[in-house]
Design the sequence.
């Protein structure tokens, strides 16, 4: 496996009130801007305090726009160069280019029902939203193609990760063995309890899913979503050493990250972001 994103970075994030943390394995590529946002540094209040990036939460749109501007200023990226997903917990992946720049922020989207984004364009930042679901970052340094996938349990069941790989292959002619995949913070198996019917859906979809599902004494099942996604990436030909894991649980660290389960559905939403710089040192 590649470099693990673990809790060692959280002490600094908490003390510095950092607006985002980086993805360690992607730091090997200086041409990338990458990260996952925290709750810190924004203007939102109440349950959405403070860096809520979701317009569909009980938070004034002006606050959300200000939060995006704060993030953009720190990254040196304008809102007009960001592209936002339109997430519905499905497996649809959209290939975007400069025609989509600003959509979801400074102008209306021309698309809907999109949980994955991919591009080979420089200076175009992909943005997907999270509050426990699994963010997956993809990069092919040979073809210079990036992608982001929002994979909750429904997206994992639908295997959106494989759909991203298919898009990268069919649209950009990427080869799986050249692709690096990394996970951002998400709800871990320690906190991801599901009912029997959800567990059965995984068992019926993936014959090997039992390796990533455990039974608790109270009858609840716990699922390791990252493990299931990783197995599917390996099946599709992504090399194990190019897959980077994450041990940060958003629910366990809900003082740093937004967590849907940790807030009983009343919190805000963070974001994963990924971009290829046009110029870099």
Sequence:
């Amino acid at each position: 496996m590649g470099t693990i994103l673990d809790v060692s970075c959280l002490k600094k994030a908490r003390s510095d009130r950092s607006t985002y943390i980086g993805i360690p394995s992607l730091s090997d590529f200086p041409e990338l801007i990458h990260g996952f946002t925290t709750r810190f540094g924004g203007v939102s209040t109440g349950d959405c305090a403070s860096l809520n990036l979701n317009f569909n939460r009980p938070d004034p749109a002006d606050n959300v726009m200000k939060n995006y501007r704060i993030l953009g200023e720190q990254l040196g990226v304008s809102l007009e160069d960001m592209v936002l997903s339109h997430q519905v917990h499905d497996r649809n992946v959209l290939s975007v280019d400069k025609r989509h720049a600003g959509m979801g922020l400074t102008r209306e989207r021309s698309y809907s029902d999109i949980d994955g984004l991919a591009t080979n364009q420089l200076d175009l930042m992909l943005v997907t939203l999270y509050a426990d679901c699994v963010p997956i970052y993809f990069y092919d340094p040979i073809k210079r193609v990036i992608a982001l996938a929002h994979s909750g349990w429904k997206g994992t069941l639908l295997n959106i990760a494989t759909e991203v790989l298919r898009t990268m292959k069919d649209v950009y002619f990427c080869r799986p063995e050249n692709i690096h995949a990394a996970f951002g913070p998400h709800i871990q198996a320690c906190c991801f309890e599901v009912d029997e019917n959800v567990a059965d859906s995984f068992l019926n979809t993936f014959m090997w899913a039992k390796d990533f599902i455990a039974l608790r004494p109270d009858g609840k099942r716990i699922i390791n979503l990252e493990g299931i996604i990783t197995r599917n990436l390996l099946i599709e030909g992504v090399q194990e050493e190019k897959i980077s894991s994450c041990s940060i649980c958003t629910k366990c660290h809900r003082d740093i990250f937004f967590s849907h389960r940790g807030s009983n559905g009343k919190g805000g939403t963070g974001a994963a972001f990924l971009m290829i710089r046009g110029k870099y040192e």
Observations:
- DSSP finds six helices and 14 strands in the chain.
- The mean pLDDT is 97.
- The helical segments are 10-16, 61-75, 153-157, 160-172, 196-205, 225-235.
- The CA atoms of residues 185 and 275 lie 18 Å apart.
